[in-house]
Every structure is written in structure tokens, then in C-alpha cells.
Amino acid sequence: MNQRIRVAAVVAFGLSLGIALSPADAASCGSDADCAGFGKCSSGKCGACGSDSDCNVGKCSSGKCGACGSDSDCRGGRCSSGRCSNATN
Q: Are 54 and 47 in contact (CB under 8 A)?
């Protein structure tokens, strides 16, 4: 019985941590300020961009943040196949 409680506690902790650390683009938004640099708010979701300055990670391409030409575009991530490894969308 104690092992089941421990497993349930670990699972609950993991889920709550995952929710707390989820990227802003997974959250709903009402304005650009809700997106905290993860693009602009569009149709209630963060991640849309109109220019590179809308993105914390990568460059704006086709209305989405995270495009890159080199690792330096990714602010700590790696550029692979034109996308930053640390891009959220």
C-alpha cells in the first residue's frame, strides 16, 4: 500500500511540475502581454509573430518563432534543419 501512495505522489508531482513549466505558447492568451516574449497572441494562443523582435528564441518565419540559420539565433539552443532545438512551437 505504501508503495502505491509513493508512486501516486511522484506521478502527481511530475504532472504538476510539467504544468507549471509548460511553455507560454501552450497557454491561452487575451493579449500579447500574456505571452511573455513567446510571440504574439493570435486566436487565443501565443506563438504568432510578425517580426524577429516578437520572438525570444529564433527568428520569425511564416508567422512562427523558432526559425534559425545558425546556433547563435537560438539563444542557448542548437539550430538543426532550420529550427531551434529550444523553440516552443
A: no
Contact 50, 77 (CB under 8 A): no
The residues pairing with 67 across neighbouring beta strands, listed in sequence order, are 59, 83
Between strands 64-67 and 79-80, the pairing is unpaired
Q: Look-up: residue for cell 516578437?
A: 54
The model's pTM: 0.58
Residue 68 grid coordinates: 534559425
| DSSP-assigned letters across all residues of 8-42 | HHHHHHHHHHHHHT--GGGSB-SSGGGGTTB-EEE
Predicted pLDDT at 87: 85
Whether the CA torsion 49, 55, 59, 44 is positive or negative: it is: negative
Cell reading at 39: 510571440
Which portions of the chain are predicted below pLDDT 70? 1-27, 89
